[in-house]
Write a structure and sequence with these properties.
- By secondary structure, this protein is α/β, with parallel strands linked by helices.
- The relative contact order is 0.17.
- Helix 1 runs antiparallel to helix 6 (232-241).
- The protein has helices at residues 15-29, 60-78, 110-124, 141-154, 170-193, 232-241, 243-246, 250-262, and strands spanning 5-10, 33-40, 82-88, 128-131, 162-167, 224-227, 265-272.
- It has 8 helices and 7 strands.
- The two termini are 12 Å apart.
- The chain has a domain at 5-168 and 264-272: LmbE-like (Rossmann fold).
- Bound molecules: zinc ion.
- Zinc ion is lined by residues 11-12, 15, 140, 143.
Length: 289
Amino acid sequence: MSGLTFLAVHAHPDDEASSTGGTFRVLKDQGVRTVLVTCTRGEYGDAVGGVKPHQDEHDPDAVAEYRKGELAEAVRILGIDRFISLDYRDSGMKGWPQNDDPRSFWATPVADASARLAEILREERPQVIMTYNENGFYGHPDHIQANRITLAALDLIDYEPTLYYNAIPLSVMAQYRKRWEDEAREQREAAIAEGREPEPNDGPPVDDDGEPFEMGTPDDEIGAAIDVSSAADAKFDALAAHHSQIAESFWMKMGRERFRETMRTEWFQRVRDPHGREGLVDDLFVDYR
Ligand SMILES: [Zn+2]
């Protein structure tokens, strides 16, 4: 063993694959111990067959149970050494009534959840930790709460790990946005051509003022760009394992070949670092090896 440990705090089943799937697999292949903490069981994802959370046939507990199996498969594919679910209830998207469910992650006091996370950090003593930024990357309450409990847990331990937020450079985000817009337009046109009512499009997530969320991180604030091309197949397979959520995603529509060509990098923003390192690195453990 290298004595190195990476720990990621994710909100829902499938987040580990979409934002850190390549990094997990690459680190594993380098002999780094990898630990995944997933905060919720993902009750308010889609049910099998694309049933949406607001539809009558949607059974949140059945969804969570199903997603547990999908996540176990993704964990296996990514070679994650230890997986811990904090088993909070999915809080749903911002403004949903599920936000107020006392069992929800969002309604859980930060002090309670961070104490549990700190316990795991004391056991594992990861040198490098990853979670989301204070906006939860796109404003989802569970992602914001993951940020809050991680920061609070860092105050409860007796050493200072390096902390990264997952990130997508604004320049790359602009390309994604274009792809999403093209896709939405194609779907709308296809529906109209077939005489169907076009599916309502939620549009991009909005902030408190109803403005579109500024997703993405300025390119010059990116602290790490990890080449995950050697792990592209594992990442694709881990995403595919979450088929109840991701079968219709743009990743799956890309297909394996184009995914391999396109999804070669995962980016992170360095937020805390005992070494005070500046600039862009290509290895999250550069100061620990
Ligand atoms: Zn999520």
